[in-house]
Amino acid sequence: MLLSRPSTYAIRALLYLAKQNSSDPILAPTIAREEQLPAPFLAKLLRTLSEAKILTSNRGPGGGYRLAKPADQISLQEISELFEGLTLANECLLGYGKCSSTTPCPVHSLWGPRKEYMQDFLASTTIAGLLALDSKRIAPQIDEPRRGRRRKNV
Fold first, then answer.
1. Distance CA 151, CA 22 (A)
2. What is the number of other CB atoms lying within 10 angstroms of the CB of residue 91?
3. pLDDT digits over 23-75, tens only?
4. What does the alpha-carbon distance between residue 146 and residue 16 come to, in Å, rounded to a whole number?
5. Is the pLDDT of residue 99 over 80?
6. Shortest CA distance to 17 belongs to which of 83, 85, 57, 66?
7. CATH placement of domain 5-85+126-136
């Protein structure tokens, strides 16, 4: 898994809020229930997203969470940096510190192009983009068990 559990849960919560397309705030327990996420853990993530100005939060009656900015302005890079400090900029896959073409590590020639691809993917993929893909997704077909008589092997 490339992204940690906090990042993936945060992305799922943001997708849920974006799907609602409502100006009404949504309670954390509602998001947790609908997305099947652990409520106490999600509450901490939502608080972090609020502190980062990705969400707005209101307490009390009529309170809850909303997106603080349009879904097309929230990138996966922003989420990964918030929860993991994952920038990929000059980080070495093997932990040697800065890694570049002038100071390469043993896997630099393999990891470098993939790292650039991941950087581009995280920076260019937004919550709105994921939401658009999700609306086009077709539910997987589940194979039903076959009914009828079993054949005996002779």
1. 56
2. 16
3. 889 999 999 999 999 999 999 999 999 999 999 998 888 889 999 999 999 99
4. 36
5. no
6. 66
7. 1.10.10.10
pLDDT digits (tens, 9 = 90+) for 124-136: 999 999 999 876 6
Contact indicator for 33, 42 with CB cutoff of 8 Å: no
Q: What is the pTM of this model?
A: 0.77
Residue whose pair of structure tokens reads 């509602």 in the numeric block: 30
Give the tokens for residue 41. 């853990």
Token match 């983009």: residue? 129
Token duo for residue 88: 């990929």
Predicted local distance difference test score (pLDDT) of residue 76: 94
Tell me phi and psi for residue 135, to 5 degrees: -70, -20
Q: What is the pairing mode between strands 64-67 and 55-58? A: antiparallel
- Tokens standing for residue 111: 């990891």
